[in-house]
Amino acid sequence: MEHIIYQLLCVVVGFLYMKSSLGKIKNPYSFYRVMEGYSLIPKGRIAQWLAVLIGPLEFMVGVTICLNILRFEGIIAGAVLQVNFIVLMLAHMNQILPFGCGCFGMHAPEKVTWRKVAWNGVYLGALIVLFIGI
């Protein structure tokens, strides 16, 4: 039974990563604008490359976790991404980001709230559970 729950959690976490990546893959320029809103990442070529690479990286993390292909590495990469996302959100707590937080698509101006940080914390917690279960 534990194995089934673990596999189900892998599918859910992996699917969420893939879903989160789609908007970034479809429109990296919009994600670049989201990244500019955080003001912690230097504008220019580095930010442009990050905007292009983060979406496919998230998608690959989701695939590796779902399909158990390099799952350990996918979980580690996912945890590193989540920690970075949480740090960026905490640095902008209660501020309105002009293009949203970039969590699940690019939106209109959006305020960074504890709820959003908590969601990312739960997601990080799920990755930790998966890591411990390997």
From TrEMBL:
The chain crosses the membrane at residues 47-67, 74-97, 117-133. It is found in: Membrane. It is a multi-pass membrane protein. One of its GO terms (cellular component) is membrane. It holds the Pfam family MauE. GO terms for biological process: methylamine metabolic process. It comes from Lihuaxuella thermophila. Keywords: Membrane, Transmembrane, Transmembrane helix. InterPro entries: Methylamine_util_MauE (IPR009908). Residues 3-132 form the Methylamine utilisation protein MauE domain. Its main location: membrane. This is Methylamine utilisation protein MauE.
